[in-house]
């Protein structure tokens, strides 16, 4: 275990791509334009992004996004002291992104700046609320391992890392090594089954070295343990993931979740949602709720209940974030799961 900072000034530092989300509702037939598997994430270049956006039935909505960024943003809304590490671009989208984070009280002093346009992600939401992502990393793709140091995590208790950084193994190594050197505990969101399929040889040794909390959904955990005899036994998957020594959170969408740690195993009941329209960002919000409880020392079932509350509210709205007008009611419900 790392040695935590004596007088932490931050509860959580998020690490990942500061992506502006382009959010669009599309019929299933549109996914043939995007290629790849439904529900996954594929990296594309700026030319392909322009082509897909040009084919949309209606112009997309624009909101700040990014997996770890969404988690960090929501964690700040829940009262954690947060900052974010990622590389912004040189355009108006980048300036807007920084301003949105500053307005949410997320520390922006650890952002890097690049020369290319800001990263963006096209989120294609089909009628079943499933989201399929196509991402152009822009300036964030130029983030170098040499730009990441323990100073990025100085004074922080915890680092939350998105699995998408594992597409660049050297960068991923630099991030986890710097976080550990700064004394942070670490959580990792596996992010996508494509990430896991391509990076099991990196992920499994890192789990062995010590990751304190791992978040996975059904597709991701099956990709991590493809040799499981019963692919649908998510309780067993959670126990196996927790056997590496940390907390395992296996999210099952509308079916709730399993959380395991050591000999503990908890079934987290889902929060029923009758009007779900978009799953984009729900897993990130789930992680924020969980970490807001876990970093305050709450029991795992309470962390799971808070996580499910945020995830369920997120799917009721288009885009990855709960709209500001709906946040006060959710904050009141969240307070019941947090110490006063």
TrEMBL record:
CDD domains cross-referenced by the UniProt entry: adenosine_kinase (cd01168)
Entry annotated with the keyword Transferase: yes
Keyword Ubl conjugation assigned: no
Signal peptide boundaries: none
Domain (Carbohydrate kinase PfkB): residue spans on this chain: 63-322
GO molecular function: kinase activity
Keywords, comma-separated and alphabetical: Kinase, Transferase
Entry-linked PANTHER family: OS01G0105900 PROTEIN, SUGAR KINASE
UniProt record similarity statement: Belongs to the carbohydrate kinase PfkB family.
Protein name: Ribokinase
Species in which this protein is naturally found: Termitidicoccus mucosus
Lineage, opening ranks: Bacteria, Pseudomonadati, Verrucomicrobiota, Opitutia, Opitutales
């Amino acid at each position: 275990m790392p040695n935590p900072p004596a007088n932490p000034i931050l509860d959580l530092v998020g690490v990942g791509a500061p992506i502006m989300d382009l959010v669009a509702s599309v019929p299933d037939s549109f996914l043939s334009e995007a290629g790849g598997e439904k529900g996954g994430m594929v990296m594309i270049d700026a030319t392909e992004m322009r082509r897909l956006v040009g084919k949309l039935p209606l112009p997309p909505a624009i909101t700040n996004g990014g997996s770890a960024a969404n988690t960090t943003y929501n964690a700040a809304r829940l009262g954690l002291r947060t900052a974010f590490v990622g590389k912004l671009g040189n355009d108006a989208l980048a300036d807007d992104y920084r301003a949105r984070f500053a307005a949410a009280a997320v520390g922006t002093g650890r952002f890097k700046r690049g020369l290319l346009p800001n990263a963006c992600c096209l989120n294609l939401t089909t009628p079943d609320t499933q989201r399929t992502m196509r991402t152009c990393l822009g300036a964030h793709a130029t983030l170098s391992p040499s730009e990441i140091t323990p100073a990025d995590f100085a004074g922080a208790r915890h680092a939350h890392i998105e699995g998408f950084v594992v597409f660049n193994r050297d960068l991923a190594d630099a991030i986890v090594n710097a976080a550990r050197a700064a004394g942070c505990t670490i959580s990792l969101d596996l992010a996508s089954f494509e990430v896991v399929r391509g990076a099991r040889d990196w992920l499994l040794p890192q789990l062995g070295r010590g990751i304190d909390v791992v978040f996975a959904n059904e597709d991701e955990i099956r990709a991590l343990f493809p040799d499981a005899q019963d692919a649908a036994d998510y309780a067993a998957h959670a126990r196996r993931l927790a056997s590496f020594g940390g907390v395992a959170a296996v999210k099952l969408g509308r079916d709730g979740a399993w959380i395991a740690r050591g000999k503990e195993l908890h079934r987290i009941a889902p929060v029923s949602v009758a009007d779900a329209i978009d799953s984009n960002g729900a897993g990130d919000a789930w992680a924020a709720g969980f970490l807001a409880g876990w970093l305050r020392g709450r029991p795992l079932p309470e962390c799971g209940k808070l996580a499910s509350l945020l995830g369920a509210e997120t799917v009721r709205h288009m885009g990855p974030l709960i709209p500001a007008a709906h946040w006060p009611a959710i904050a009141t419900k969240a307070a019941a799961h947090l110490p006063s």
